[in-house]
Amino acid sequence: MKKNYTLFLLFITSISFSQVKGSVTDTNNKPLSFVSVYLENSITGTTTNDNGDYELAITKKGEHTLIYQILGFKTVKKKITVSSFPFVLNIVLSEEEVALDEILISSNENPADKIIRNVIANKNKNTDKFSEYKADFYSRGLFKVKDLPKKFLGQEIGDMGGGLDSTRSGIVYLSETISKISFQKKPANFKERIVASKVSGSDNGISFNQAKEVNFNFYENSFKLADAEMISPVSNGAFGYYNYKLVGTLYDKNNKLISKIKLLPKRKNDRVFSGFIYIVEDDWAIYGTDVVATGAQISMPMIDSLKIKQNFNYSLKNNAWVPVTQTIDFKAGMFGFNFNGRFSAAYSNYNFTPNYTKKSFGNEILSFAENATEKDSLYWTKIRPVALTTEEVSDYKLKDSIKTIRKSKKYLDSIDTKQNKFNLLDVITGYSYNDTYNKWGLSLSSPIFDLNFNTVQGWNSSVGLNYYKSINEKGERFNIGGKLNYGLSDKKLRPTGYFSYKWNNTTKPILTLSGGVTTAQFNAKQPISKLWNTISSVLFERNYLKIYEKSFAKVSFSREVINGIRMSSSLEYADRKPLFNTTDYVMFPKSDVDYTSNNPQEPANFNTSFTPNKIWSFALGTTINFDQKYVSYPDGKYNVSSNKYPSLFIGYNKKFGADNAEWNSDVVYSQITQNISLGNWGNFKYKAKGGIFLEKKDIEFIDYAHFNGNRLLIAPNDNYLNNFYMLPYYQLSTNDKYGELHGEYNFKGALLSKVPLINKLNFHLVTGAKALFTAGNKPYSEYSVGLDNVGVGKWRFLRVDFARSNFNGKNENRVLFGFKL
User: Fold this and answer.
1) Residues 118, 75: one domain?
2) Within a domain: 418
3) How far, in Å, are 352, 604, 643, 726, 814 from residue 806 at the CA level?
4) Which of 284, 300, 397, 766 could form a disulfide with 122 if both were Cys (CB 3.0 to 4.6 A apart)?
5) What is the distance between the alpha carbons of residues 541 and 545, in angstroms, rounded to a whole number?
């Protein structure tokens, strides 16, 4: 055994030292990060880390020719003779020398424009050369904070995993991923299998470094970056967004002429880049990109700047320029938080003849190999293509050393003891008790945060108690809890309780049991929030909320049947009773305004509403997400929505067992929704709903089809497809067939960015249209125009819309304000 162990150590040692290593600096002795280092006539190698250090695995002694390449510096070709390992070689790179060709300068046409036109004309030819491939992918993610506050909104932030120094600065996130990726241009397919994943200080090792998320292809007309669809400087419509300037030319290691072109955005707030793009003469291919976008341009105001740097290499196998390295650097800050980060990636071992079949790709776009998150440091030392910096090594060592301590029962109990301290004020503000080690917790909700007003209960609030228990890492868990609601005016206590059980995070089967006594809105979709009803009632004497009392018992179950299809069902028994106003309290009484009754059909009828009744309700629904992609993590399956096809819902609801058989009903309904990216021209999304009662009967008003109206000057939520702008809440409720349409087009700056002076505001033009069709009535319609992304600097949480409605020949105008949180 001892002999075998010795041989094993010798083997590992030979691997560790069978390499060429060193550092790369500029002429001022400043380390150069992400320099490509590889053998001549190859596109596979390594890159330098943030300290400029590199390690290139070479097991064969003798003569080799190494290439050192990075944008902005002269490429160095170095011949070496290796007689022993490790072989140390330090390299100094000098800045590239660019010179303008006099012939190009004398041309009548801007030479940069001519080059870009050639690139656009040759995009398909160049991308067809690597239209299919497999490759190895390595990614590293790093987040740092500086001067992190100790508290935010009164809550302690903590030490962010233990990586902060005395100034509360340091690494808060460090991760690495090694994957096998598969790519196909037509039909568009991408698949990634993670073979190793590591997160500093984390026990599960699941990083969020995914190849697809950073697959920024500048040959495409646009690509997704953060929350914006960025316009490529070589897109088909690029000349509408960019001006170009030829800075100079240089020659690469193969004596290819490279043009360095400066990108000059025509409008600073367009979704465009500034910086440089490098183009190979004659091939008209991208040699490299070194571009920057601001937070305003990527629709993330907290970001100061985001920089993408790509390096391409020439492949003899297919006569193509293919990406080999990429870095994404960013700086951000808000609310006293200042952080920066880098995501670096390296592609290697390209196979341009993968021989794909129809079964090569499916809906699974990401998966983890067995034990991918459990690789030890020995494995990573052997396989890691980019050496760690001293800071990164220290972070791994520090957090790995404290990880065992911080997941121990003793440590977790000590933290819980500190956070579980109870004081009398917690009865009002809320309290939680957690046993982190045993994965359960108990929470008491705050009656202050649930305090609200309505004309039935007056001022009322609830206090709730919830217990949860997590059973395993696969998502099995259960919740049990209850709530007591009390109204000061109607002096009635209403208790409710529930139990919920989820079996896993793959198909997510969820069983829920609930029951008790509660107040419910006539419209079960609850278009009126308690908060806004409270404000509109006590300040303006407009009580839009209409409720009834329901004593009920309900069981519901849902699960994903197959990928893209989720079914849900429920069965409820309810005893429903009308409620009446018990208070006319208002802070600022107005002589010309009075509260309406709690009868949504007859606002002036304070005596009757509906006949008390008992009824059963059965609901069955299916949601179909066409072409749904998904990622498979070790702890479960997570779906990725596709905007290529719409999402469809089909439902059926049956009311039966009522006191009066005439109140029983059957309704079939459906909904289709989609969010369509229009690239340079923003986003269009729509939602269409419809339903039909199988038999028109004189059913209780509660069981009518109700629509999400709005009588506030505030948008009810940030999804404008869910509500109408100004439809009275119950004006067009029906027990017959119906249909509604909602559409919204957000230009994302595509129009306003072209208007002088206005483009400096970086507002986004939004237009919308809505319609409601109910049997026996003329159509109701609304049209709107508004501004999104309204605000100053990083504070852009406001949206303003002007809407106009039409019904029965009458128009109404309204300005609405919406808030994005």
Assistant:
1) no
2) no
3) 60, 25, 31, 10, 12
4) 284
5) 12
